[in-house]
DNA sequence: AACATACGCAACCGCTGTCAA
DNA sequence: CTTGACAGCGGTTGCGTATGT
C-alpha cells in the first residue's frame, strides 16, 4: 500500500560481487549502518537489490565473521544442534559466533553429511543406517513437519563413491576469481566474534568495526591460511569420534 | 598438455512471518 | 481487517577450481 516494490530487478546487477562493489557496500555500511536494506544499494551507489546486499553483507563482508574450516568443536556443535533442531541453520549459526547459516549449511552438505554416511550414520536422523528400513522413525526434527525439504536426499549414491568422502583440503580460495582471492572477513581476528551472527549489523558500534576487510594485506590472509592448514592437518581430537564414540571412524580415511 | 569430472562455495530463488499503511 | 513491503530463512544452482585420466 503505497510502498515501493522491494526491488525492480530491471537493470540490477547479479552474480559474483566485485571488489569494487564490496568496497562500496562495506564503506557505506561502516559509515551509515543500514536503516532499510532497500535503500542501501541506492545510497551506496550499487546496482544491486537490497536483498543481495544484505546477503553479501551477512554471509561474507560482516567484520565479525570467522572464515575457514569449522573447528572440531564447532562441527560438534553443528551436529549436536542439528540432531535437536534439524535444518534450522540460522538457529545453529546463532550458537556459533562468527559463523553464518549459509556457511554452516554448506559445510553440512559438503563435509558432515558425507562423513556421517561414511560412518554408517544417517545424517537426517542421526541414527545408524540400517539395511532394514523398518527401523524406528526419526527422532528429529522436533517441529511439526520436516522443513520443506527433499534436499536431504542425496543427489547421487554417495555411499558408493569412495572418492566423494575424501574432502579436498582447500583453504578458502575456491571461489577463485580475482575479486574473491581476498578473503575479507578471514582477516578478522576470532576475538571479534563476540556478537551473535544473527545480530543486526546496525547494532554494532561503528567505531568498533575493523576496516573493510579487503583492505587488509595478503600477508594477513596467508597467515589465516596457515592457521587453517595447521588446524586441519594437525590431526587433533576428531569431532566425530568424540560425538559418535565407537562408530569406527578412521581419521586416516580423510587425510 | 588437454580434456573430463568432481567438488566446494557464493549467490540466487522462493517461501514465510511480521509489521506498517 | 486487508494488503503488501520487508527481512529472514532454507533449498538449490552455477561457476571456478582441483583432481583424475
TrEMBL record:
This is Uncharacterized protein. It comes from Avena sativa (Oat).
Amino acid at each position: 500500500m503505497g510502498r515501493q516494490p522491494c526491488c525492480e530487478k530491471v537493470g540490477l546487477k547479479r552474480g559474483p560481487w566485485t571488489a569494487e562493489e564490496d568496497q562500496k557496500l562495506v564503506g557505506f555500511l561502516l559509515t551509515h549502518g543500514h536503516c532499510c536494506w532497500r535503500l542501501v544499494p541506492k545510497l551506496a551507489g550499487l546496482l544491486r537489490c537490497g536483498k543481495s546486499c544484505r546477503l553479501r553483507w551477512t554471509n561474507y563482508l560482516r567484520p565479525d565473521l570467522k572464515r575457514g574450516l569449522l573447528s572440531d568443536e564447532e562441527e560438534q556443535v553443528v551436529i549436536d544442534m542439528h540432531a535437536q533442531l534439524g535444518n534450522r541453520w540460522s538457529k545453529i549459526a546463532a550458537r556459533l559466533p562468527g559463523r553464518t547459516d549459509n556457511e554452516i549449511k554448506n559445510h553440512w552438505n559438503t563435509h558432515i553429511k558425507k562423513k556421517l554416511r561414511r560412518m554408517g550414520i544417517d545424517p537426517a536422523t542421526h541414527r545408524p543406517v540400517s539395511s532394514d528400513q523398518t527401523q524406528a522413525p526419526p527422532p528429529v526434527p522436533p517441529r511439526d513437519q520436516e522443513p520443506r525439504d527433499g534436499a536431504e536426499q542425496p543427489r547421487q549414491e554417495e555411499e558408493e563413491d569412495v572418492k566423494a568422502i575424501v574432502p579436498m583440503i582447500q583453504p578458502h580460495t575456491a571461489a577463485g576469481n580475482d575479486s574473491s582471492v581476498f578473503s575479507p572477513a578471514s582477516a578478522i581476528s576470532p576475538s571479534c566474534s563476540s556478537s551473535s551472527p544473527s545480530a543486526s549489523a546496525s547494532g554494532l558500534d561503528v567505531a568498533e568495526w575493523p576496516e573493510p576487510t579487503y583492505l587488509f594485506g595478503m600477508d594477513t590472509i596467508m597467515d589465516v591460511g596457515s592457521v587453517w592448514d595447521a588446524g586441519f592437518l594437525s590431526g587433533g581430537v576428531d569431532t566425530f569420534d568424540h560425538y559418535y564414540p565407537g562408530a569406527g571412524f578412521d581419521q586416516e580415511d580423510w587425510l
